[in-house]
Design brief:
32% of the residues lie in helices and 23% in strands. With 243 residues, it is an alpha/beta fold. It has one domain: Purple Acid Phosphatase, chain A, domain 2 (4-Layer Sandwich). It has a six-stranded mixed beta sheet with strand order 3-2-1-11-12-9. A six-stranded mixed beta sheet has the order 4-5-6-10-7-8, with helices on one face. α1 links the parallel β1 and β2. α7 packs antiparallel against α8. The structure holds zinc ion. The site of zinc ion (ZN) has 7 residues, from loops.
Length: 243
């Protein structure tokens, strides 16, 4: 089975459509797995939820999903993120709000454990260090893990003596072999590794591979919608810089 693994879509419909089109062109997918933060920051929260719902999907919650629906407060958000969360709340139907607020923070699907942050703190932890990954893997009961939140395409693999850590680029693959790992496919809707192209993962459970991909999309269209909708110019600007 082939699965598109998406994290941090952040209400960016053009980026979400672009990665799904890329996955379709690469042979299509049976499911889409969302690792949280499908909403927040971007201009199309309802349309991104609707697009996910056109697929067989698995979804967990991110901090922005919970903040937009009042499950958590925005005290720990920076001012722009908090403002975006309030804006997002105004764009969601009651049905979408219920769906988001009922998402669980951790989910096990076959050989994979899915969490937005990490198993150290599913909603808030940024899994960006070997030390954090070691703690996470200590809690991970499945061979493989998938996380989001940092918006960085990262891979932490257990070695015989030490943990290997890598920032992965377009077209790189990781094999589902004997070594346990936790991977972040990068962010679909707001990449922060200096590459503004949408990032996602293509999982093939028969080939036993997780591929990392980058896909260009119409950034200017997303930015125009953000500005027209009254979202902050800084949030629009950062999309073209990939930071
Ligand atoms: Zn995010």
């Amino acid at each position: 089975m082939r699965i598109a693994v998406v994290a941090d879509v952040h209400a960016n419909l053009e980026a979400f459509q672009a990665v799904l089109a890329h996955a379709a062109a690469a042979g299509g997918v049976a499911e889409v797995w969302s690792l949280g933060d499908i909403v927040g920051y971007g201009p199309d929260p309802a349309a991104c939820i609707a697009l996910l719902h056109t697929y067989a999907y698995v979804s967990i919650a991110g901090n922005h999903d919970y903040a937009a629906t009042g499950v958590i407060g925005t005290e720990d958000f920076n001012p722009l993120a908090a403002e975006a969360a309030r804006w997002t709340a105004t764009q969601l139907s009651l049905e979408d709000q219920l769906w988001l607020s009922n998402l669980s923070a951790v989910h096990i699907e076959g050989e994979f454990t899915l969490a937005h942050g990490s198993l150290n703190d599913p909603v808030w932890d940024y899994l960006v260090s070997a030390e954090g990954a070691r703690d996470h893997l200590g809690h991970q009961t499945t061979p493989y893990g998938l996380v989001g939140h940092s918006h960085l395409p990262l891979l932490f693999t257990e070695g015989q003596t030490r943990l290997q850590e890598a920032l992965l680029g377009d077209g790189e693959d990781v094999t589902m072999g004997s070594r346990r790992f936790v991977a972040n496919p990068g962010s679909v809707g707001q990449p922060r590794d200096g590459d503004p192209r949408a990032a996602y993962g293509l999982l093939d459970t028969e080939q036993r591979q997780l591929g990392f991909h980058r896909v260009p999309y119409d950034i200017e269209l997303t930015q125009a919608k953000m500005r027209a909708g009254g979202l902050s110019d800084y949030l629009a600007q950062r999309l073209e810089e990939g930071r």
